[in-house]
Amino acid sequence: AQIRYSIPEELTRGAFVGNIAKDLGTDVAKLAAANLQVLSDSDSQYFSVNVNTGVIMVSERIDREQLCGQNPRCFLHLKLAIENPVEFYRIEVEILDINDNPPAFPSDEVSLRIYELASLGARFPIQPAQDPDVGTNTLQTYHLSANENFNLNVKARTDGGKFPELVLERALDRELRAFHQLVLTAEDGGSPPKSSKTRITIQVLDANDNHPVFDRPSYGARLVENSPLGTLVVKLNATDVDEGPNGDIRYSLSSHNSAALRQIFAIDEQTGEIRVQGNLDFEEATVYEIEVEAKDMGSPTMEEHCSVVVEITDVNDNAPEVILTSFSSSLSEDAPPGTVVAVIHVKDKDSGDQGKVQCYVSPDLPFQLRKDYEHQYSLLTSTRLDREYIAYYNVTISASDLGRPPLSRHTILPIALADVNDNAPQFEQASYEVLVAENNAVGSVLVTVSAADPDSDQNSRLSYTILRAGGTDPGLDPTRYLSIHPTSGQVSAKFPFDYEQTTYLQFHVEVSDGGSPALRNRTLVHIFIVDQNDNAPQVHFPRAGEDSAIQLRISPFTTPPALITKVVAIDADSGLNAWLSYHLAEATDPGLFSVTLRSGEIWITRALQETDASAYELLVVVRDAGEPPLSTAVTLVVLVEEKGPEALQGSEARATDGGGLPTITLYLIVSLVLISTISLVGLVTLGVRCL
């Protein structure tokens, strides 16, 4: 639908223009509920709509001369958009001229030099006054003050312009009067009329008494726009019956011509040829009227004027223009098909078919164009969107006219998809297995779990927490031993681990994003504690107090080789860290005794002599196979006595029966072998799982 209003220019802000609800025949409440919007084709919002009353009001000062210049009719175009359903209404507001500008001369004073022998009827153009108003409010007439020699003639141009000319009605006589003072008044047709004045000073000169004469009063030409520079427009011909310098003619463009016209056309002062020196644009002007003057070289010079009318023919030299009336560069990825992304206005300055425009977008994009009405399109979504698949689109709007050949213009609309929290975080691994050496430093990072979320911004901001895994010992709370950084996923130890107390931990790590509602996921983490050699061997037999030696008694008749005792030690570590070896570090007589490397048995290796000492001190060192190895030492004092046994196990062994020590030794050896075997199998199994 289209509605037209007419208002005068320069209305105050808030002035009434029209009632949309009344003119559309609809209820005001319906317009307010339909989200009524006003869209303007111009850069400024000159009008606003009160959605509660349906009244269109003036919101900014409207200057018709600034908007439309000298065009006789001036229009502002609006579009009204309502939703549910979407409808568009065109509003055309005609801006009527008021008489708010008086005519104005370029100068307050004009000086003319006229030869006293100027012919009666000679015309002397005066620079015209300019009035930016139009119609009856623009310049209508001129008035000349009363005088004896000159009358006023007003020359009307084809474009409506009026140029005043002084016409000599009575011969001049310099000797009688050398200067004439006249007043020229320009008046418009407003009510009341406005006017301005300029003072004309005429100096009467002697000499050259014939002015040049053109062979035609006016000339005409037709050119194609964008004609190349130097194109001949027309060749003028003027003659002067005077001789010598008084008959030598020079051509020039009159001062009446605008500066813009002077940049487009140039005239050869000798030949009178007018040629193109600037750009001819049909869209800027379809007709040019050139005022040309021919002057002789007399003193004073005499001149004659003529007009050259140049018509411009249109060619398809303007590509269509694409104007975004409404555009949202951000679009939610869950927007349904048919969502309006942009409202586009297209126009072409050319005329006829060359000014008709068609628009289209690439069929490979999830967007389509809908033609709302002439020169307006809406860009809509055509399918479902997925930001994680494509997060950004450059939609190219192609506009092409119907000229031959057609011209086109491409406008790129960058559209970014706004994220919706539709993806749960995903861990890089379904589970994590970590080997951690016992006695680790407090706060050391054991493992870093990492998850990714293809969403963006807040929807992809992840936080991690530790949860107890199902089926684990209820008393073994992982949060007691471990902590996790909420954003980096680094799992750290709160305390050093002790392999001898805990060998394995299992727990869940849960990750959640920052969406609303938040989405979550879990992964399982296995932590295996690896034994370190942090326990030295402990001697269990024979027992002795701190800093005291163990005494053994043997008979001087002991027959070698004879077992005199056995050192039994236990290491709380496992594996190689608990594999013990026994060494005789010091002895009073190193050649008399030996220690079995693995069993710790102490043997006498030769028969005792009468010259041998009666007491021997042995230092036995028990060392594990860890890296670095740890050790402990025990001191034995062997006494040689007549009443001593041939093979003693120590002062504390005399109370036990002879079968006790071998049984204990057997149990210790079996236990050590079993522990070593189990540890070895566990390490091999763990290595296979890791591989």
UniProtKB/TrEMBL annotation:
Main localization, broad class: membrane
Keyword Glycoprotein: yes
TM spans (from-to): 664-688
GO annotation, cellular component aspect: plasma membrane
SMART domains: CA (SM00112)
Localization terms from the record: Cell membrane
Membrane topology: Single-pass type I membrane protein
SUPFAM superfamilies: Cadherin-like
Record-level GO BP terms: homophilic cell adhesion via plasma membrane adhesion molecules
Chain ranges of the Cadherin domain: 6-105, 106-214, 215-322, 323-427, 428-539, 546-664
PANTHER family: CADHERIN-87A, PROTOCADHERIN GAMMA SUBFAMILY C, 4
Name of the protein in its database record: Protocadherin gamma-C3
